[in-house]
Amino acid sequence: MSTSDQSLLSRWRDRLFGRARAAAMGPARQPVARPGPPAPVQPRAGGPGSGSNRPKAAPVAAVGTEELKQALAETVLAAPPRETGRPGATDLAARREKTLRDLARLQQIPSLQSVARGFIASASRDYLAADELVETIEKDPALCVRVLRLANSAYIGAAGHIDDLLTAVQMLGVQRIRTVMQVLYTLRDSRSIAPGFDWQHLWMHALATADLAEELEWQLGLSNVPMLYLSGLLHDVGKIVLSVLAAEEYRAVLLLAWHESRPLEEMELERFGVTHREAGRIFLVANSMAEAVAVAAEHHRNPAEAPKEFRLTVALVAVANSISKAYGLGFSGSVLGEADGDLADLPAWQVIAEETGRRPDVAALEEGLRDYLPGLKATLRSLR
User: Fold this and answer.
1) Residue 24 within any structural domain of the chain
2) Sorting pLDDT into bands at 50, 70 and 90, what band is 275?
């Protein structure tokens, strides 16, 4: 076995049995051992600053303009109507009122209801045996292939090739497989949710954000952060909501925000009177999603304003969202601008420090992600 494979297998074992420690925040409470490792993730031997002498993986380069432009072209499939000028103050008030009325009727939109029901079911804690889940997956050949790809990515691939579904489900965990299955179903139907859109890139971004949030949780020596994975997965669902409510208008918003280099939320406020964050919260609350998930959707740009019990969840999602955007892990429909600052300057770090009592070592965390990001990006591409 190569040194690299030994390193990957070592960290997988550490994660599985709870022996690995993160150095990013110094001494901390011992995390509760996870029943199994999350996927997809590219692991490392030990935590940041572990002193391993193995060769460092080449970091994933920050995403380029051409890659983002291509993702935008693959997301917006139809041209928006001719520009009719920006709305005035009176128009804005009327548009907000109309948007709120439309949001109140969300339960009458079948395409969004199916998305909501799927994620609620995947998040439920009802017992489901691994062999029952395997029977469901086996009925869908395409889903079989994708689940096995996940099981053979990152640390699991280092332990030996997995070619049967039962082993894959046991390694990844029933709860994770149920959530990932819903993501894969949603990816497959990404063109059917809103006319003129293919939201595949957005769901890739959401999947990356969810996985990054859990990786940050692990590297910081934390555990059991409420609804972290699902919060990361649904933090941008408001963009899909607005695209369903007014497809032509939202296509114009995305394209104008890109071509005029303006913040997406500024354009959303002009056209709808609400941002995708507010729309996401309203949709999630209306569909009885966990409060932590709705709060993350609303506050992932300002985690300090989130309710106390969910601030850590929102802060981790905020950091993960920024990293996902910076490295082109999917496409969220918006890009980072100068106003977003560097990773080390994110206000979310202060929230994390306040909630944990320890200031994160951002440089150590960035180093810790060197091996993780290439594997995550490769796995996301394999799911398309």
Assistant:
1) yes
2) very high
